[in-house]
Amino acid sequence: MTSYLVVLSASGKPREALRLARRLQALGLPVWVRSSETGVNTSTERELAQAMEASSGVVILVDSDQISFAALQDLKCASRFDLPMIAIRDQGNAQVPQAAATFELSELTSADLLDVIRPEAEEKMAALDGPPPVHFLPNPESARAAAANHIGGYRNPDPGSRWAIVLLAFALAVSLMETWHSIATFFLLDKDSPERLFYHASEIDFWSIVFLASTVIAGIPYLIWFNRSYKNLITLGNSDLQYTPAMATGGYFIPLANLYIPAATMQTLWKGTDTSGSLSDLYAWKKSDGSVLVGFWWAWWLAAMIVPRLARQEVQRLSHVTDEKLKADGFRSALSFYIFADLAQILAAICIIAIVVTIGNRMWDRYRRYSTEIAGVTPEPRPKSNWAGQIVVGAILLTGLIFVGVTHQSTNQLPPTEWHSIEQRENGFSVEMPGQMVPQGSLPEPGRHQLLSSTPYGGFMVVEESSDEAFPSDLTFEQLKSVANLALKPLVEAVGKIQGEPSRAMVNGKLGVQMDFTPIDSGSGKKWTFGQAIFLLKGKHFFCLLAFGAPDKHVTDDAARFISSFRAVD
């Protein structure tokens, strides 16, 4: 027999037809496999028709219980040329009505086939007007020529990888800043430092926005690198990829699918650049080992995406919690979730940078070997890495990061205290209350009136009580102190521990009694140590002014304004 046999598969799977072609080749029979079956080019219908016109017969592997639509179309094409058809059964029961003979693959011999086919291919090929059909087996020179032609489609992915590495490194630096502020906030929850707590909390919000923006920017060169590298897999002799380059790249944007496709395609990219297996085997990449590094990268990235959702749910739950200690514990728990997510995204960034670098090296090594050993051409030398542009951009970004961080730090101070001017003539006083007014429920004693307000670092209170008779206006300090011990001391002892002896205090020219105290622990975890109480008399009214909170300038300044703004009115 001087012509060849066209090889098909009932399932339409490329690798199955190729498997039968190699078995026939081992029997010494020349075969033709459509180029899409070998994964080197994409066959046209004209090419298939031309091949069948010049062939001696068609051999179809029965590898499924039904003949696929694509295989049916090929069989119709064979019937037009009146070619003898031979069915080779292997793990399938599909019926091929046109088959002149059926054999078992395990018992197949070349003599069986030669008895059926008609050796007319040589005469048919001589009569063809166009070029002879492409056939890859068993002619190694044809395969080498096709591989050499195909390797010309290789595109160097290094430029995209360099930009991706620099921008991913910048995103990593931003993530480190965010993580630092998250950890600082976590440890400040147990300490009474409202200014620092507010600063770090504001920084977390700021750097999370910067990280999101830097990740989006880094994603552009990363996806360009990824798409180009994935296309190179086909050029470098890999076939039967699960996803097309377009689908592999677009998988990052498809909801739900983006939980799996990026990791799966990155493993394909890793396996497809392996050089330990046979470079001539189009499916050898499937037998290659995957990368643990890729697994770590995707696990950390998913954790960085999913864990913050748990933190947000915890924060939402805390909006209905009134107990200060439970709320503080809940915020600490939510913040620990955010810290874990920050650390996860740092590890994911480190892993993906290492993956981009490693796959770049593996791909270049496979390109060099495939060009030499399979395509028989001299590979182009790998261009020297020119990092000048990336270094300049990286330096600019780093400078900008430092500048923005310093500038933003200078503006992240506690906002000025909001003040409320209150005048209550029926209760005989006017005052300015700082921060947020606290709603009052039922008062502890009839005839007593009180106002409460709070800031992140302190609490402020006015207590007014009236008597049936007016107090003398010429009371001495000792007399005033005796009244204060009766009226003010029980009130102070309810909120703190009195320190030292009462002292004189002047409020807008009015003599009063001052008692310093240390606030008691409310169970919220706040360690407040500043407490000041002032007792005043005016007509039938006596007044107690209390200010307590953190031992810093904010609460003392607000306490001074609060007390100095108080006026007893008739």
What report would you give on this structure?
The structure is a single chain. This protein has 570 residues and is of the alpha/beta class. It has 3 domains: 134 residues, Rossmann fold, CATH 3.40.50; 254 residues, no CATH class; 150 residues, 3-Layer(aba) Sandwich (Protein Transport Mog1p, Chain A), CATH 3.40.1000. 51% of the residues lie in helices and 17% in strands. It has a 7-stranded antiparallel β-sheet, sandwiched between helices. InterPro entries: DUF4328 (IPR025565). This is DUF4328 domain-containing protein. Keywords: Membrane, Transmembrane, Transmembrane helix.
Core attributes:
alpha/beta, transmembrane, 570 residues, 16 helices, Protein Transport Mog1p, Chain A, Rossmann fold, five-stranded parallel β-sheet
